[in-house]
Amino acid sequence: MSLVVARTIAQARALVAEARRQGRSIEFVPTMGALHEGHGSLMDLARRPQGFLVVSIFVNPIQFDRADDYERYPRTLEADVEFCRRRGVDLVFAPSIEEMYPQPQRAFVEVTGLTEHLCGRFRPGHFRGVATVVTKLFGIVQPDRAYFGEKDAQQLAVVRRMVRDLNMPVEIVACPTVREADGLAMSSRNGRLSPAERSAASAIYRALQAAAAQVRAGARDPAVVRRAGLALLQAEPLLRPEYFDIVDPEEIQPVLMIESEVLIACAAWAGTTRLIDSLRATPPLNA
Ligand code: PAF
């Protein structure tokens, strides 16, 4: 079957229902478009022999804490549909704002605790917007499996917890971060970087690696690990670090002592573009 683009919820539901009648599983990759190889790798993992692959493309206004960021977010629907066609997607669901939010949204989904630190601290309302739109999309697509990138580690933890706590019948599949040759995590926002900012941005991955190396070498004090990473970020004049933290990977709470696997996560501004990335690291057994 060739790719179909559905602009309405009714059309998307009808196509998904038909696929189910044919005995196909529903595999779902939610996106905000401006697709790149990172999304491509999610689609590759989501493509299954008896699967019906759905990709949503929707720039969700309620997860943006800054109006300028929402307005400047890249919108490249035509190229995205072509990208999906090449990747063997069956259905692109690309609703309008009016279709998704026909009236002021009064019901929201909030995941507490996990959203207090990292991005949640600096982007008020962001994860409430993500959890709410993902719940709406799950209600529309009713997938068997949904695929999320590990790059957005806090988002992944929030969605996993939401699904578990609310007994949603969907399996969340975590997909490894895809990186450029110099280590920069692929992101729809990378295209907004000037050449100088783009080159500076590779320090983010180097900083995470330096911090992860400390953990793997047995450093137990998160302050020591943090300093090792931050030093590399701060040495880069075109980057303004927002946070660089060592947290528990499931609860997203700062750790007092590194005794098991941790998530090292950071956000930094390059000009007017905010970049995030993270790595997991496990201390040696004898630390
Ligand atoms: O990661 C994203 O692109 C978005 O946060 C998501 C999950 C599609 C919700 O709008």
Structure report:
The chain is an alpha/beta fold. The protein folds into 2 domains: 4-175, Rossmann fold, CATH 3.40.50.620; 190-279, Pantoate--beta-alanine Ligase, Chain: A,domain 2, CATH 3.30.1300.10. 38% of the residues lie in helices and 20% in strands. The protein is built from 11 helices and 9 strands. It has helices at residues 9-21, 37-46, 67-72, 77-86, 97-100, 119-122, 126-141, 153-165, 195-201, 203-216, 222-234; strands at residues 4-6, 25-31, 51-57, 91-93, 145-149, 171-175, 239-247, 262-270, 273-281. It has a 6-stranded parallel sheet with strand order 1-4-3-2-5-6, with helices on both faces. Strands 7-8-9 form a 3-stranded antiparallel sheet, with helices on one face. Strand 8 and strand 9 form a beta hairpin. Helix 7 (126-141) crosses helix 8 and helix 10 packs antiparallel against helix 11. The N and C termini lie far apart (55 Å). The mean pLDDT is 97. Pantoate (PAF) binds next to strand 2 and helix 7.
Q: Please report the total strand number as a whole number.
A: 9
Low-confidence blocks of residues: none
CATH superfamily of the largest domain: HUPs
Round the mean pLDDT to the nearest integer and report it.
97
Helix/strand/pairing class, anyone? Answer: alpha/beta
The backbone outline, from C-alpha atoms, is globular
Would you identify the CATH architecture of the largest domain? Answer: 3-Layer(aba) Sandwich
How much strand? 15-25%
List of distinct ligands in this structure:
pantoate
